[in-house]
From TrEMBL:
GO-annotated molecular function: DNA-directed DNA polymerase activity
Family per similarity comment: Belongs to the initiator RepB protein family.
Lineage: Bacteria, Pseudomonadati, Pseudomonadota, Alphaproteobacteria, Rhodobacterales
Name this protein carries in UniProt: Initiator Replication protein
BP GO terms, sorted: DNA replication initiation
InterPro entries: Initiator_Rep_WH1 (IPR000525), WH-like_DNA-bd_sf (IPR036388), WH_DNA-bd_sf (IPR036390)
A UniProt-annotated Pfam family: Rep3_N
Length: 398
């Protein structure tokens, strides 16, 4: 496999001893579709602070929304979290010095629900492994939500890690059965049954649903199938759903301008992936044209994540906060938005929209975001509920 150019890598990716995607963390495949989606959302929520924090939190309703789940059924959520704590993650890989390392850990070291908040943690050893993108590929939640089969999502997760190489490499069938969660089943010991009930339906759903296309290949000893691998190529019809890993955007002029302002590599790529170059450029031009801005990065963050509408966007009425008391309300709301993770911000917007039935108000929010004038009162109430005490000392915006 070709080595990735070092000048395109940052941080942990620059370690010269790691020259290929090891992708050796195998999570027990015996997870329900709900548990597998839950696992991915929890990881994405914690990813930026996996190493620096020992505990992570996410609103229970945000969590349920991101996995497309009814938030009123707390018992099922409890059982799903319990299942993750009882699930084993195993790794077998080379360390930075080329020495073989084997390890095992529960997928979650603990989880609890209290006051509408889910708190959880990973073991330190597993957190270190999960944080290295050379080892574990984060799954795009927009793609994940489209899956209806746990086997298909499991296959996608395990294959997507090898998207750069174009092939998973050969997996012994006993390992493949483990990854699909059907090890221990006498029925699936027969390859004919495994192929008809697991492989073919899972491949068909991955190819229809996701941003990659899989082609299975088998290896035989005599007449018996002993190994399987999957050829991987991009799905041009659904590539837009993919997370941009930075290989392309790092060469663009908008990315260069963001970095020159002091925006981190990760944040710059997140903005470009979430908003697109055109919108980021419009907000960047707008912010740089403003006089007496003390923090360009802070103002740009508010403009993008608070969704200020600039003249370039055709929304002059939403240009920055309104004056007087409303300005302070908006400032506090935008600070609360800024403090959220990208996953949580997306969920917040979805949750707020789900509470609006009036078409005109929905359109105004979709256009102006948290600056929406038609939804000002609703937005203030929403964020007071999300962050108790946020508006302390202020009267509610009219």
């Amino acid at each position: 496999m070709d080595e990735i150019p070092r000048d395109q890598l940052t941080g942990a990716l620059r370690r010269g001893a790691v020259k290929k995607h090891v992708a050796a963390i195998h999570v027990s495949g015996k997870l329900t579709l709900l548990q597998r989606k839950l696992s991915n959302v929890l990881l994405l929520n914690a990813y930026d602070t996996l190493i620096s924090r020992t505990r992570h939190q996410i609103d229970a309703r945000t969590l349920c929304l991101m996995i497309g789940y009814n938030s009123n059924d707390i018992e099922t959520l409890k059982q799903s979290l319990k299942g993750l704590a009882e699930t084993v993650a195993e790794w077998d890989m080379l360390d930075e010095r080329g020495q073989q390392e084997w390890g095992v850990s529960s997928l979650l070291s603990y989880a609890k629900l209290k006051g509408g908040v889910c708190e959880y943690a990973y073991s330190p050893a597993l957190a270190e492994k999960l944080h290295d993108p050379k080892v574990f590929a984060l799954i795009n939640l927009n793609i994940q939500r489209r899956f209806t089969s746990g086997h298909a999502l499991a296959l996608y997760e395990n294959c997507y890690r090898f998207v750069r190489t174009g092939s998973t490499g050969w997996w012994p069938l006993d390992l493949f059965r483990r990854l699909m969660g059907v090890d221990g089943s006498a029925y699936y010991e027969t390859f004919k049954h495994l192929n008809a009930k697991i492989i073919k339906p899972a491949v068909a759903e991955v190819n229809k649903t996701s941003n990659i296309i899989l082609t299975p290949e088998t290896k035989k000893t005599g007449r018996a199938v002993t190994d399987i691998r999957f050829r991987i190529r991009e799905n041009p019809q659904l590539a837009i759903l993919d997370i941009d890993d930075g290989e392309g955007v790092r060469h663009g002029p908008v990315y260069a301008r963001l970095r020159a302002l002091g925006v981190s590599d990760r944040l710059a790529r997140q903005w470009l992936s979430a908003h697109g170059e055109k919108q980021v450029l419009a907000k960047l031009d707008y912010v740089e044209s403003r006089p007496n801005v003390k923090s360009m990065v802070g103002y740009l963050t508010a403009a993008l994540e608070g969704d200020f509408q600039t003249v370039a966007d055709g929304g002059g009425a939403g240009e920055g906060p309104a004056p007087n008391g409303r300005a302070e309300v908006l400032r506090r709301i935008l600070e609360a938005v800024k403090a959220r993770t990208p996953t949580q911000r997306d969920a917040d917007r979805r949750l707020f929209l789900s509470q609006i039935s009036d078409r005109r108000m929905r359109e105004d929010f979709e256009k102006h975001g948290w600056m929406s004038p038609l939804n000002a009162t609703r937005i203030t109430i929403f964020w007071e509920e999300m962050s108790p005490g946020l508006m302390e000392g202020l009267q509610a915006a009219e």
